[in-house]
């Protein structure tokens, strides 16, 4: 039995954190927020937030901290029952915001946010990124081996625009220089569970559940 209700899933690009985040959120009945896919959807809608985010995402840069924090705060204020964040916090400033925000602190006096840190060697990430596809209907990630989305059956599977080799290297570099230091700070106050992201979807999912027990 897993007790936690508040999770942040961190990992390098193509580590599988989106897939694993969704799986865990479904299993535990948590609200799920992927900051990356939410921002891509805002851009498609042409919203104010989307327009502000677009220039950064187009260059494979992290969006500024204030924008990411605004997105997450407005979302968290609507789901106090339990949530899983995918792709947040990505920097030191965001990590501090997650630990200090009144919305979150208000949910419990000793808020048990748990961080799941997926690790995958860079060579494997590079291999994965070339075959990754995203469902434009439900946002699930899959591989080019699939003809239809395994989750919703849609045939609209597209390569993500940010999955070019150059874009990937840039995001991996940002992860190493910005997110890994944030992880160190999170580790000082929160439980951080490091799990290998190597293996099948089900194997990794099981490894995560075992760590959380
Ligand atoms: Zn789908």
- Tally of DSSP helical segments: 9
How much is the radius of gyration in Å? 16 Å
Strand content: 15-25%
The average pLDDT is: 88
Which ions, cofactors or small ligands are bound in this entry? Answer: zinc ion
In CATH, the architecture is: 3-Layer(aba) Sandwich
Number of strands: 8
Task: Give the CATH topology.
Answer: Rossmann fold
CATH secondary-structure class = Alpha Beta
Main structural class: alpha/beta
Order of helices and strands: EHEHHHEHHEHEEEHEH
Largest sheet: spatial strand order: 2-3-1-4-8
Shape: globular
Low-confidence stretches: none
Explain what you see.
This protein has 213 residues and is an alpha/beta fold. It has a single domain (6-120, 177-212), classed as Rossmann fold (3-Layer(aba) Sandwich). 49% of the residues lie in helices and 16% in strands. The chain contains 9 helices and 8 strands. The protein has helices at 17-28, 35-45, 48-58, 65-76, 92-100, 102-105, 122-129, 165-189, 201-212, and strands at 6-10, 31-34, 83-86, 113-119, 132-135, 141-143, 157-158, 191-196. The strands form 2 sheets. Strands 2-3-1-4-8 form a 5-stranded parallel β-sheet, sandwiched between helices. The protein has a 3-stranded antiparallel β-sheet with strand order 6-5-7, with no helix packed on it. β5 and β6 (141-143) form a beta hairpin. α1 packs across α9 (201-212), α2 packs across α3 and α5 (92-100) crosses α8 (165-189). It is globular and about 40 Å long. It starts with 5 loop residues before the first strand and ends with a helix. It binds zinc ion (ZN).
């Amino acid at each position: 039995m897993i007790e936690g209700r508040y999770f942040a899933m961190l990992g390098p690009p193509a580590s599988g954190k989106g897939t694993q985040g969704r799986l865990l959120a479904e299993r535990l009945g948590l609200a799920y927020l992927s900051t990356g896919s939410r921002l891509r959807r805002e851009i498609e809608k042409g919203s104010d937030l989307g327009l502000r985010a677009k220039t950064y995402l187009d260059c494979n840069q992290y969006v500024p901290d204030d924008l990411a924090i605004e997105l997450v705060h407005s979302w968290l204020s609507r789901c106090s029952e339990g949530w899983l964040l995918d792709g947040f916090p990505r920097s030191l400033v965001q990590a501090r915001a997650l630990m200090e925000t009144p919305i979150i602190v208000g949910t419990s006096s000793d808020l048990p946010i748990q961080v799941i840190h997926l690790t995958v060697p860079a060579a494997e990430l590079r291999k994965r990124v070339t075959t990754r596809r995203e469902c434009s209907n439900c946002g699930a990630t899959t591989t080019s081996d699939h003809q239809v989305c395994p989750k919703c059956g849609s045939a609209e599977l597209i390569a993500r625009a940010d999955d070019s080799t150059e874009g990937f290297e840039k995001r991996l570099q940002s992860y190493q220089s910005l997110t890994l230091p944030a992880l160190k700070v999170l580790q000082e106050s929160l439980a951080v569970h490091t799990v290998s992201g190597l293996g099948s979807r089900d194997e990794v999912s099981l490894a995560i559940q075992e760590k959380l027990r």
